[in-house]
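Before we proceed, please read the two lines closing this message. Tell me what the token row says about the fold.
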Amino acid sequence: MFVCFEVDSYGHFFRKAKTRIADGVEPHWNQDFIIELEGSQTLRILCYEEHPKLGLQLRGKAHLELSKSWLNDTLTERRVSLQDLVLVLSLKFLPPEATLRRVPTGKSSGLFGANIAHICRREKRSVPFIVTRCVREVERRGMQEIGIYRVSGLASDITKLKKSFESNPYEAEQLIKEVDIHSVTGLLKLFLRELPEALYTDDLYPRFFEAFSAPDQEYRKTTLLTLFSSLPQLNQSIIAYLLEHLV
């Protein structure tokens, strides 16, 4: 038996997290997920069970309306009825300014929260190792995965990966092959999110956003290319590498 969590966006529900398979009459998962809401108002919970003859069966589902009247920055326990099942879960809400806050690392050899130029100079690479390693792993076993880069990874796995890349790259090299692929994409997103400055830079980002929203296609293309050429060379290399992977 396993549970999937989906949130609504523009009239559709998208899967954001999935538990491991647990057996028994009263399965316990004890897993943590960080789910990006992006303006979503409803959390849909689906419970599935593998039947030996009928295959995968939906055991129950529920819709949980997300509201600040009960969802806040402290863990709140909810008992959710899934037809003949009851799921007990704890939730808390973190505002975007908390999850996107960029705090520089205080360690000279740090990776997460470190200046991108310092990382590349230390590694003697134009694209940080953690970026290329995550991308290689996604391209090895994740390109056909539904919801890649959208579904949340397991928080505990992402934490383990983060610590490994910070302290023991050899251990990280092995661990990244073993964890769920959504934890790998979660690690990459976390690394980019914790950079002291976004790859598009604080100064140019508003202009990128403005140009991208321009109605005139030719103006949009010309302006975006001009802005891109204004970025530091390292930033250009990393963005180009990621775009080649994603597009």
